[in-house]
Write a structure and sequence with these properties.
By secondary structure, the chain is of the alpha+beta class. It folds into four domains: 194 residues, Heat Shock Protein 90, CATH 3.30.565.10; 108 residues, Ribosomal Protein S5, domain 2; 153 residues, 2-Layer Sandwich (formyl-coa transferase, domain 3), CATH 3.30.1540.20; 86 residues, MutL, C-terminal domain, regulatory subdomain (Ribosomal Protein S8, Chain: A, domain 1, 2-Layer Sandwich), CATH 3.30.1370. The protein is 35% helix and 21% strand. It contains 19 helices and 22 strands. Strands 5-4-3-6-2-1-7-8 form an eight-stranded mixed sheet. It has a five-stranded mixed sheet with strand order 9-10-13-11-12, with helices on both faces. It has a four-stranded antiparallel sheet with strand order 16-17-18-22. A hairpin with a 2-residue loop joins β20 and β21. Bound molecules: adenosine-5'-diphosphate and magnesium ion.
Length: 622
């Protein structure tokens, strides 16, 4: 008896299954891809498991469906509707094309396939039941347009393969990963994943990449990404990547690269992304990247790997440099630190999907590809922008909203006032070190760098208050605090305020307000402090009197001090006020010239100092 024999058909099927259907996750992948190819708008993946394995996988879509005659054909080996001739292989736009998946899945499980063709003239759907590759029955049933395929008892007839299955949690993590990847690649489709009847995951099919990212990874994660949008000669690259310093991980677990809509894993493309970050990427760390690369389909060969995760690119080097340049450009764009638009409110409400920490990392780590792409001349030949320059460009008021005219004028008057006062007084102390202004933050703080290389964050209001207060005190000492008004302002005060005026007026006049009785509870303001014209506003005077009247302090000197502080506070640049670089520089200079630049008159800090050591501690470098 000869030892050599021809394998039977069932065996052949099992071998084919070995390639495409290795595990429950590969079944999910193939079924979901079929639903995407069927142009579904909504895809529901419903999983159930017992303690040992995933028992049932059901995928429902509202796609184009199949006719009754095609239903059985779909399960034939190498039966596909997606290509018809070898030429079609160049330029594939669908996810499937081998016509193997359904046959392979049906060969190793119990499948119930129910489908109704979109726009068909029959009221019925077709249902096909196949066990281990054998057609059990074909019937007409009632069902909506679209397809539901239920796969049960996977590998029930292939014990060897069943033995190789990993734990349910491992399998689930692979399934989540696959569905997430497909959902991120097909933002126009809404995906819902149920496990044991509970919704675990949902995207909304808004079409916006950010919405999909927020749905999968959370809104906070999505906010820390910056947009990439480059339309080059070779490739169009668009998507989202980590802002510098955000969402960095020691493994490339959040790399989602697609070429022409097909998810791919490519070390050289990962390398290209990291290279685009250059020094913005901490050693050994990976950013998150969600990037779509669009190429001429003729440049891409997808027919390389049975599970199609790998593609061959005819001009890989060019694609690598296009990708690297796109990332570099995105990171060096001035708006890189701006928070992206919030995801759609619907998405925000339903961020039920918590971080899945227990997930398996599909790719642990790897060495850089040996064949490193050649560096392009620009922009890498030019010295890289320093972090300070980056911070400075981000902080630059040029990118902030143009301050409105009246507010800008007001600021200018306030600043000039303290400058003018200084000039009249003694000349500025020559030796003060004036920190270099980097820019404004939140229209309230001024970021500076001093000679020691420390980062200073100055509260613009507190700083100007200190300057104003010091100068006002000097004016008071010189008895030059008042400026007379051409026409006195009349004020009607409350009974209580009026009652305290005789006592207060002496102190107020030292601070610059000369206020005299004018009638029953009416007072005339003849002079206001020289330091600011705003102090002549009736409203401001009212506030100052009200506050002065509320002071319980008896010591007149201390009352004066309180009044002066209030006056200074009212006369200076406020928070939430855009300043120009020039204004910030003048304010910082004025602050540097005061005797106690580090606190405002109320004792609050004007300046936070972030030394190198402190920064190192904050970044956990120590
Ligand atoms: P491929 O996707 O490579 O064509 P499959 O074995 O996955 O091969 O599917 C075979 C055929 O069955 C597909 O070409 C398609 O015509 C049909 N099909 C499979 N799933 C669906 C579905 N969800 N909706 C509509 N048609 C489907
Ligand atoms: Mg398929």
């Amino acid at each position: 008896m000869g030892r050599i024999h021809v394998l039977d058909e069932e065996t052949i099927n099992h071998i084919a299954a070995g390639e495409v259907v290795e595990r429950a996750a590969s079944v999910v992948k193939e079924l979901v891809e079929n639903a995407v190819d069927a142009k579904a708008a909504k895809i529901i993946i419903d999983l159930s498991a017992d303690t040992t394995s995933v028992k049932r996988i059901a995928v429902t879509d509202d796609g184009i469906g199949v006719s009754a005659e095609d239903a059985v054909l779909a399960f034939r080996q190498h039966a596909t509707s997606k290509i018809s001739a070898p030429d079609d292989l160049a330029g594939i736009v669908t996810l499937g094309f081998r016509g193997e998946a359904l046959a392979s899945i049906a060969a190793v499980s119990k499948v119930t396939f129910t489908s109704k063709e979109r726009g068909a003239d029959t009221p019925e759907a077709v249902q096909v039941v196949i066990h281990g590759g054998e057609l059990i029955r074909q019937t007409a049933v009632g069902a909506p347009e679209g397809t539901t395929i239920v796969v049960e008892d996977l590998f029930y007839n292939t014990p060897a393969r069943r033995k190789f299955q990993r734990s349910v949690s491992t399998e689930l993590s692979h399934i989540y990963d696959i569905v997430e990847r497909i959902a991120l690649a097909h933002r126009e489709v809404s995906f819902v994943l149920l496990y044991q009847g509970k919704e675990r995951f949902r995207t909304y099919g808004t079409g916006a990449y950010q919405d999909a990212i927020a749905a999968v990874f959370g809104a906070a994660f999505a906010k820390d990404l910056t947009a990439v949008d480059a339309d080059g000669r070779i490739a169009k690259v668009s998507g989202w990547i980590s802002k510098p310093g955000c969402n960095m991980r020691p493994t490339p677990t959040r790399f989602y690269l697609s070429i022409n809509g097909r998810q791919v894993s490519s070390k050289s493309l990962q390398w290209a992304v990291r290279e685009g970050y250059g020094t913005l990427l901490p050693k050994g760390m990976y950013p998150a990247a969600f990037l779509d690369i669009t190429l001429d389909p003729r440049e891409v060969d997808v027919n390389v790997h049975p599970t199609k995760r790998e593609v061959r690119l005819s001009r890989e080097r060019d694609v690598v440099s296009a990708l690297r340049d796109a990332v570099y450009t995105a990171l060096h764009d001035d708006t890189v630190f701006e928070a992206p638009a919030a995801p759609a409110p619907e998405t925000q409400q339903k961020l039920v999907f918590e971080e899945k920490q227990s997930r398996i990392e599909p790719e642990k780590s790897y060495a850089l590809p040996k064949e490193e792409p050649k560096k392009a001349d620009a922009p890498f030949a030019s010295p890289k922008q320093s972090l300070y320059e980056k911070v400075a460009s981000y902080l630059s008021p040029a990118s902030a909203a143009e301050p409105d005219r009246a507010a800008a004028r007001q600021t200018e008057i306030q600043l000039r006032r303290t400058e003018g006062l200084r000039k009249e007084a003694e000349p500025a102390k020559p030796a003060v070190e004036v920190p270099e202004v980097l820019g404004q933050i939140a229209e309230t703080y001024i970021a500076c760098r001093n000679a020691k290389g420390e980062l200073l964050i100055i509260d613009q209001h507190a700083a100007h208050e200190r300057v104003m207060y010091d100068q006002l005190l000097r004016k008071i000492a010189e008895k030059k605090a008042s400026q007379e008004l051409l026409t006195p302002i009349t004020l009607s005060l409350s009974r209580a305020e009026s009652a305290s005026m005789p006592e207060l007026s002496e102190i107020l006049s030292q601070a610059g307000y000369v206020i005299e009785p004018f009638g029953q509870d009416v007072w005339a303001v003849r002079s206001v402090p020289v330091i600011s014209s705003t102090l002549g506003d009736v409203k401001v005077i009212h506030e100052i009197i009200a506050e002065a009247a509320g002071i319980t302090e008896k010591n007149p000197e201390r009352v004066l001090d309180r009044v002066v502080k209030t006056v200074a506070c009212r006369a200076v640049v406020k928070g939430n006020t855009p300043l120009t670089k020039n204004q910030m520089e003048r304010l910082v200079r004025q602050l540097a010239e005061t005797d106690s630049p580090y606190t405002c008159p109320h004792g609050r800090p004007t300046t936070l100092v972030l030394s190198k050591d402190k920064l190192a501690a904050m970044f956990l470098r120590t």
